[in-house]
Amino acid sequence: MTENRFDDIYDVVRLIPHGRVTSYGAIAKYLGGGGARMVGWAMNASHGMPDVPAHRVVNRNGLLTGKHHFGGNLMQELLENEGIKVAKDQVVDFKTLFWNPTDELL
User: N or C terminus: fewer CB in 10 A for the chain?
Assistant: First the structure.
């Protein structure tokens, strides 16, 4: 877990379009390793970095697994402010809203 690796993760997260979400695993796959957990650690460490939209990163099923790091329902509120519907801590229409960096960042 190097700071440089976190910076690579943050660079990808900054590219997630408004109103879209991606997964920890999709970012890890795009970057060629490190695993989804490393991406999760980076998202947890990004609090206080307003230019890193960590709320747009969810698990592979669209669940808001990182929401406890935001406190309360802030993660859901941030997503809903972007027009993303969330029900029972899961992104509604996840497959439609999913942004895959491997496909989008050629």
Answer: C
Closest CA to 26 of 48, 4, 58: 58
Residue position matching structure tokens 């976190």: 6
Q: What is the mean pLDDT of residues 82-89?
A: 97
Q: What does the alpha-carbon distance between residue 44 and residue 41 come to, in Å, rounded to a whole number?
A: 5
CB 86 within 8 A of CB 7: no
Query: Measured in whole angstroms, how far is the alpha carbon of residue 104 from the centre of its chain?
Result: 15
| Type and span of the H or E element at 28 | helix 24-31
- The pLDDT of residue 2: 55
pTM (two decimals): 0.94
- Please choose, from the candidates 54, 69, 67, the residue with its C-alpha nearest in 3D space to the C-alpha of residue 24: 54
Pairwise CA distance, residues 36 & 98, whole Å: 16
pLDDT 10s digits, 15-63: 999 999 999 999 999 999 779 999 999 999 998 899 999 999 999 999 9
